[in-house]
Specification:
398 residues; binds S-adenosylmethionine; 2 domains; Rossmann fold; three-stranded antiparallel β-sheet; 44% helix; nine-stranded mixed β-sheet; Outer Surface Protein A, domain 3
């Protein structure tokens, strides 16, 4: 007697309108509507086709019951179902590690939905393995499954409670009130991990163009200048410095990540480099500059750095105090549609241009340049942002 069950190499996961089923053996993806999903649930190897029919019949219009048998036959032909006895074990053929590797390969090929299914099964088979949940959280985020991302990261945190990056992402995923900037521990952890492959990742994979875009904007404000005194906030490995050096008489850089500063040192571009947190450094510098006006800057740059700050006035206001007369602050931020700013599910902040204008006004600065531009790719999507130069040209310094 035929007792169909799901093939053991097939993984299923719910979608809004049914199931998606992926056969890890044949690399085949099946989309199932709500009825097909119910049939698949009932096909556990313990029920005969007639029993399944009688269970589903009540839910189907009369003329569709005949189609049920045809659907099961087709699913058997397509290897989605097999004829079997007794309950199938959970995914008999691949181990958790094999499934996770398969998820990696699928992700590399851009098959996010199927990668997610494999990773989900991997995490469920090895729930004590933290990295399986972190990878599942990221895949769920890319696949746009916000709740699944939150659940995965929450599970991960039960194993790794001190992970500052995941703590921060969960603030966004739980829609909690965001901190005014990404916590220092989180920046340090992120860039300790990222520094060794930052340049290749940003340039070769993410098509990062912010240094060029900012350089073009700076040229509009300081055409042809090569003698500027420049401060690079969040200089990182020095990708921004590459573009700034040709405009600089003096180029100073600061960054919170000692690993990123070490990479920047190797570039040999900067006159001085310091491991420091930006807001603390700016406060300290304000006091020094009050007594030594010669230390003021023509240009302060934050290239892809203010994406880690929600409240921009904590940087723009004190930075404006360090400018020479006719000085400028050039920066990029990611664009958000809603007023003000928001912490996005990526853990970075995004800003509305009206908010930027308001911060500039409060600091006594005017918007000299504003362009909306492509900044870089992320998970195959374009990230758009604001390229801005604010100056104190209209302000008389005391
Ligand atoms: C996306 S990277 C940009 C690096 C570089 N400007 C570039 O264009 O490649 C952001 C940098 O900002 C630094 N950063 C973020 N928040 C910071 C803070 N509060 N204080 C100092 N540096 C910070 C990070 O350590 C990181 O190196």
């Amino acid at each position: 007697m035929l007792k169909p069950r799901l093939k053991s190499t097939v993984l299923v996961s719910p979608l809004a309108d049914g199931y998606v089923a992926y056969d890890t053996e044949t690399d085949r993806l099946h989309r199932l509507n709500a009825t097909a999903s119910l049939i698949v649930e009932l096909c556990d190897g313990t029920r005969e086709i007639e029993q399944i029919e009688s269970l589903v019949r009540a839910l189907l219009p009369k003329d569709e019951t005949a189609a049920l048998r045809a659907w099961v036959s087709e699913a058997l032909e397509n290897d989605l179902l097999v004829s079997g006895h007794g309950k199938p074990t959970k995914h008999e053929s691949l181990s958790a590690d094999q499934l996770a590797k398969l998820a990696d390969r699928l992700r590399e090929r851009g098959k996010i939905q199927t990668a997610y299914l494999c990773q989900k099964q991997a995490a469920e088979l090895k729930p004590e393995c933290a990295s399986k949940w972190a990878d599942l959280g990221e895949l769920a985020h890319i696949a746009g499954q916000r709740e699944a991302a939150r659940n995965s990261y929450e599970h991960y945190l039960t194993i790794e409670p001190d992970d500052a990056e995941v703590q921060h992402i969960l603030v966004a995923l739980r829609d909690e009130a965001p901190p005014s900037r990404m916590p220092d521990k989180c920046i340090q952890q992120l860039y300790e991990r990222f520094s060794s492959f930052y340049d290749s990742n940003l340039i070769e994979e993410l098509e990062y163009v912010v240094p060029e875009k900012l350089s073009e904007a700076i040229e509009l404000v300081f055409p042809g200048r090569t003698d500027l005194k420049i401060l690079d906030l969040g200089c990182g490995t020095g990708l921004s410095g590459e573009r700034l050096r040709e405009r600089a008489g003096v180029l100073d850089g600061i960054d919170l990540s000692s690993e990123m500063i070490s990479m920047a040192r190797k570039r040999n571009l900067y006159d001085s480099l310091e491991v420091a947190e930006i807001t603390s450094w700016l406060k300290g510098a304000e006091a020094i500059i009050e007594s030594e006006a010669g230390k003021r800057y023509d240009l302060i740059v934050a290239c892809d750095t203010l994406i880690y700050f929600g409240d921009l006035s904590q940087v723009i206001q004190p930075a404006s105090q360090l400018l020479k007369r006719g000085g400028a602050i050039a920066f990029s931020v990611e664009r958000c549609e809603q007023p003000g700013y928001e912490l996005t599910d990526s853990g970075r902040y995004a800003h509305h241009f009206e908010y930027i204008k308001q911060v500039a006004r409060s600091a006594g600065l005017t918007v000299d340049v504003h362009h909306e531009e492509f900044l870089r790719m992320e998970y195959g999507e374009e990230v758009m942002g604001h390229i801005v130069v604010l100056s104190n040209r209209d302000r008389s310094l005391a």
